[in-house]
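Human: I hope this is not a bother. Would you mind checking the protein record under this note? Thank you for your patience.
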Amino acid sequence: MEHNKLFPSFYLPPIGAVAEMVSANTGSIFIERFEHFPKQTYRNRASIYSPNGKLDLIIPVIKGVKIHTVIKDVRISYESDWQRLHWMSLQTSYRRSAYFEFYEDEFAPFYTKRYDFLFDFNVGLLELCFKLLKTKRSLVFTKSYEEAYGGVADFRDSINPKREDLGFTAKPYFQVFEPRHGFLPNLSIVDLLFNQGPNSLNFL
C-alpha cells in the first residue's frame, strides 16, 4: 500500500474525501473493511443541501451494534422506511438542479433494493459516483485491521462531521438554494454531481 491513500467506507462521501480519492497517485483506492464501526461519522451519514439548508441523511443500523462490531458486518435496519425518506429528500433538494434528471435513474435502485450490509451499500454507491465522475478507480479492501500503515496517507479518522480540516478548499459552484442560504462547502458528492454534472471532476 506504499504511497497510497486509505479511506473508511462512506455513505455518499463528502466532496473533500472524493477530491482526495481522485488525486491518488494510482488508480486504486484502499477502503478499510475491518475497523470497528464508529458512530456519528460519514460511514452511515451524508450531508445534502435541502430547501431549509444543510440536511443530514442517516442510515439506521441494527440496534445492538456495539463499538466492537467490524464495519463489514454492520447490518442496515429497515424498521423505518429510511430509503423512501432519503430518496424523497434527494428529490426535494435536487429536482430543480441542472443534472438530477440525468442521474436519478442511476441512484433510484439504491433506494428500493434492500442491502443487508452497510458496507456493501456504500461501496455500490461509491462505484456509481466514480462512474458518473468519469474517473477510473478500482477499490481495494483491507484484509485485516492495522493501526497504521507505512507510507500510506490514512484518512480513516480525519474525515468526519466533527473534524474536517483536510486542507481542501472547495471551488464555489452554483447550488440551487444558494440564494437563500449561501454557498455550503463540502457537502456530499451528489450535491456537486447534481449541480455540475459532467463538469464535476474539474471542481475536484
Observations:
- The mean pLDDT is 91.
- DSSP finds six helices and six strands in the chain.
